[in-house]
Amino acid sequence: MTDLADRLAEVDARIADAAHAAGRDPRALTRIVVTKFHPASLVDELYELGVRDLGENRQQELTAKAREVGPREGLAWHYIGQAQTNKARAIRAAASVVHSVDRARLADALDAAGEGMPLLDVLLQVNLTEDPGRGGVAPDDVERLAEHVASCATLRVRGVMGVAPLDEPPGPAFERLAESGARVRLFAPEATWISAGMTADFAEAIAAGATHLRIGSAITGPRPPRG
C-alpha cells in the first residue's frame, strides 16, 4: 500500500498547491478517485487511506464493485460515465451521485427508478466542444434541461460537469462550464458543484471554480488489462 499512499499524498499536495495559487481553500474541494478496471481490493486499500469518494464510468463495473465492497460509512460512489436509460435503475441502485445527466429522458428514467429511495444528487453534463456527438447537453440548452431536472421529484440538481476538449487549452473551457453552472442556479439555487478536472488539467479546473476533481491513474497506478 506504500506506493498507493505515496501517489495519493502527491496528488493531494498538488491539489492543495493549485487551490492556494487560485486563492481557494483545498478543504472545499472533493477529490474523487476513479477506480476504473481496478479490483475491489483497491477500494479497500483506498478506504483505509481515508478515501471516501470513488468514481466509475461503466454501469456493470459500478454495480459489481459496489456490491463486492458493500456499504461503508461515508463511502460515496460517483457515476461519471455516459448513461443509457435502460441502465438507470441499476445506476441508481449503486450510485450516490450521477455526474452525467445530459438529457431529459435520462433524468426521467433515473427519477422513475427512485420511488421509495433517498434523493439522488445529479450533475448536468455540459458539452464543452463543438462536436454534437460528444456527451453532454449543448450550453445553449442547459437552462431548459436544468428546469426539467429540477422538476423531477426524486432528483436533486447539484451542479454541472464537463470534460475539457482536446483541441484547446482547458482553462477557457472550464470557465464556460462555470458560466453554465451559474445559469443552472437560476433553477436550482443549491447547484453549486462543478465537476471538472482530471490528472492533466485539474489546476486549470480549480482556477475556474471546480469543486469536484476526477483523478484516476495518477493515484491508482496503471490500469490493469480489461478481462
Written overview of the protein:
This protein has 227 residues and is of the alpha/beta class. It has a single domain (2-220), classed as TIM Barrel (Alpha-Beta Barrel), CATH 3.20.20.10. Helices cover 40% and strands 17% of the residues. The chain is built from nine helices and eight strands. It has helices at 2-21, 40-48, 59-69, 88-94, 104-112, 142-150, 170-184, 202-207, 217-220; strands spanning 30-34, 53-56, 76-79, 97-101, 120-125, 155-161, 193-195, 212-215. It has an eight-stranded parallel beta sheet with strand order 7-6-5-4-3-2-1-8. Strand 1, helix 2 (40-48) and strand 2 (53-56) form a beta-alpha-beta unit. Helix 3 packs parallel to helix 4 (88-94) and helix 4 packs across helix 5 (104-112). The radius of gyration is 17 Å and the shape is globular. The two termini are 23 Å apart.
Brief overview:
By secondary structure, the chain is of the alpha/beta class. The protein is 40% helix and 17% strand. Strands 7-6-5-4-3-2-1-8 form an eight-stranded parallel beta sheet.
Largest sheet properties: 8 strands, parallel
Order of strands in the sheet with most strands: 7-6-5-4-3-2-1-8
User: Which class of secondary structure composition applies to the elements?
Assistant: alpha/beta
Shape: globular
Helix content percent band? 25-40%
Could you please say which CATH topology applies here? TIM Barrel
CATH superfamily caption: Alanine racemase
* Low-pLDDT regions: none
Head-to-tail CA distance between termini = 23 Å
As a whole number of angstroms, the C-alpha radius of gyration is 17 Å
